[in-house]
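Sample intake sheet
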Amino acid sequence: MTADRLTELLEETSADVTPPAFAATAWATARRVRRRRQVLATVAAFAAVIAVTVPLRGRDRDDIRPAPPAPVPSVPVPSARVVAVRGVDVVPPAPVLRPVSPLPADFTIPAGAPELSGHPVDRAVAVVQERDPESADRSMRPLHVLDAAGKWVRIDVGDLVRTHDGGGNEADPLRSTSLSPDGRRVAVPQPEALVVIDLPAAKAHRIPVLGLNEQVMWSGDAIVLVGQGAAGVVRVDWAAATVSPEPAAMSAWHGGGSAVASGDIAELIGAEGGRKVRVWRPGDARPVREVPVGFGLIKPVGYGVSEWYGPAVPDGTGRVAAAAWGDYAPAEGPRYLGGVQMLTVVNTASGLVDRLLDLGMERGKSCCRALDWIGDDALLLQTDLEGLITWHVRTGEITRVTTGPVRATVSIRLP
């Protein structure tokens, strides 16, 4: 059993666990002091708030590296502290429900959905694998696709199993990057293989790929880049059933792929001395560019990224969106180091964070994920508490797509 695989198992079972809050009283006191200062400008003294340094949280289940120490009790971060900060948004207590067609508002897979072998799908907008972190049953759950008309179909081809490492630790194989850009194929990593399910043909293609494969991303609609953990991928032409080495030392863990064949692929990485965005062109051994990540107008108010997790989803115009753990360390007041969960939008040319969604600290580990862009300025996200939401990165508006949490791994490609 490797430390990497043990981490994945731990993260899968604890993904929905919300850390307890131990300092509600302290924060209530701090808010009363803040109001008193606004009314009585001559009052110089105010109640002190204990500054808490929060260690990094556990890794994302898709980012299986050695697990950090267990977190210590942390002070919850009031969302009010970021409402007026330029370039930073928060999720409102009750976002307006605004469904995105053809995604269903309840996102419930009906019992007895027809099988793909008898009901081919011309184009899917979503692939879903349900999960129940509270269940002791770790058997392989079926994959379902949602077609462009809003109908569910169960995938019954491919003979899929859970991914696993040499120590026997297992994980569900569907990834948020599994659905092809055109919505017609689903790439599923498998031990010693890649399975590509051709939805219009209702047929599964199994291509031998050495290793215990766990990550996939698309380069156009014909090539799947398959990764196993560290930097480095192999190229799989699913139709020709050929496998070849990829010179670019990119990571399938933090890259989001490209809708264009051989298009540039960006990844957000942690590196000694800072955080970086690295852009690769498939076939080239050296990156096209590597620039440090900066916060521009956001930086003076104390935000920083500790580590990204999950894929960097491209918008096709030079921006990527990715989830992260981060810091909030203003010039005055409490400091929160590594414990704030956030979504970031990063310009891959300048390295600047264009917009940030502060999700606070009262969520499950690796709570959230960017799924797809809707038009030029809206992101579709999955969060542990709300389900699917949209975040308009120009106006900051946040709306709810589903009526509740979605207990599933989801891969979405909207028309």
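Comment: Confidence is low (pLDDT under 50) at residues 1-11, 13-84. The two ends are 42 Å apart (CA to CA).
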